[in-house]
Amino acid sequence: MLIATTNDLAGYRIVRHVGVARGVTVRSRNIIAGLGAFLQSMKGGEITIYTTLAEQSRQQAYDLLVAHAVSLGANAVVAMRYDANEINPGVTEVLAYGTAVVVEPA
């Protein structure tokens, strides 16, 4: 599966647009992680607990995007983007989306 944030893929030609593909995950912080993050914030610098949570959330949304694109019959996704929204305090939706396409070498 080829994924690009651009509207095309160098060396490939889009032969069919399949539709919008998306992957969404909703994550919450837990109390222990919140306490750990609070303690890390007291000393300053990166809050690695939240960095890890953000990376895991993005990776899961990305993996779900790829699975959705494959289920649509695509072999690539162009114009891929991430979005995040807070649903409730401490509960965040992470969305990966793009245009599912079929490409072939140019």
Number of domains: 1
Strand residues, percent: 35-45%
CATH homology group: Hypothetical protein apc22750. Chain B
Number of strands: 4
CATH topology: Translation Initiation Factor IF3
Q: Do you know the CATH architecture? A: 2-Layer Sandwich
Query: In this structure, how is the largest beta sheet organized?
Result: 4 strands, mixed
Q: What low-confidence regions span 5 or more consecutive residues with pLDDT below 50?
A: none
Offer a quick outline of the entry.
The protein has 106 residues and is α+β, with helices and mostly antiparallel strands. Helix content is 35%, strand content 44%.
Would you write up a description of this structure?
This protein is an alpha+beta fold and 106 residues long. The protein has one domain: Hypothetical protein apc22750. Chain B (Translation Initiation Factor IF3, 2-Layer Sandwich). The protein has helices at 31-43, 48-71, and strands spanning 2-3, 12-28, 76-88, 91-105. A 4-stranded mixed β-sheet has the order 1-3-4-2. It starts with a strand and ends with a strand.
Task: Outline the fold blueprint.
Elements: E1 2-3, E2 12-28, H1 31-43, H2 48-71, E3 76-88, E4 91-105
Parallel strand pairs: 1-3
Antiparallel strand pairs: 2-4, 3-4
